[in-house]
Write a structure and sequence with these properties.
Low-confidence stretches: 256-267
Radius of gyration: 21 Å
Strand order of the largest sheet: 2-1-3
Mean pLDDT: 81
Largest sheet: 3 strands, antiparallel
Distance between the termini: 40 Å
Length: 267
Amino acid sequence: MDEKAIERLQNKTPEEAIIERIAEDFNLAPFLARMQFNQMQRYFETYLGLKRDVGQLTYLAVSGKTPPGRSIPESERIPVVLTLHHPDDLEAAREGVGALRRQKLQRITQEAREQGALLTQEDLSCLLCSSLSTIRRDIALLRAQDVLTPTRGQIKDIGRGVSHKGWIVRDRLAGYTFTQIKQRRKHSISSIKRYCQDFERVVRLYHQGLDAPSIRSATGLSEALIGEYLTLFSEAGSENQRIQQIVSTPHPATEQPAEIKKGGLLR
């Protein structure tokens, strides 16, 4: 997709339309209108608890608890919210329709799994308006690049495996920059930084002597994710440069003695 087409799409979002209306209605400069929009968006999210954003839909998918071998009609299905369009998709569109489709595929399979469901290849074919053969080729290509695509077939065949957060942390420990990880994993920079910061909090608290339940209480992260992060910490070893930086440079939120933080929530 050419650059002019990308720019036109970027300017057609509901957010940009609302910002333009705010600027016109209240005679505000564009940057002030954007600040006003961002503030109101935070108010809506905080006080009205909006669960679904623009570009998302609710889809019935097979529960991740359903055992393998059970037919779809016999399987428990649960509603999940999937993001079929995200502003980051416009970056992938620069690389072509195939790259855009694979980014969407990766994202929605991960979103479904995080909500307790697993999408099938047939689900992906329907959601992405592509043939089954195209979906299979995309999944094979992503897996060859060590990109997680947790479909129902994959998870039920090989078990839980490493989550997308784990892959991102593993890349960081291997020395990749945030920009390089974004290119590899098709996640936003803000999400990548958040996952890495969570990993650092877990490692620092563990290094101070807290066990997994205490770390869960202190951070609000699930014990499953904490266990995965501690496994990555162990696998990386004390000689890893990133690990050395984490344990030798305490963050203000975790530099107090461990016993003070038990029962607290660290952000």
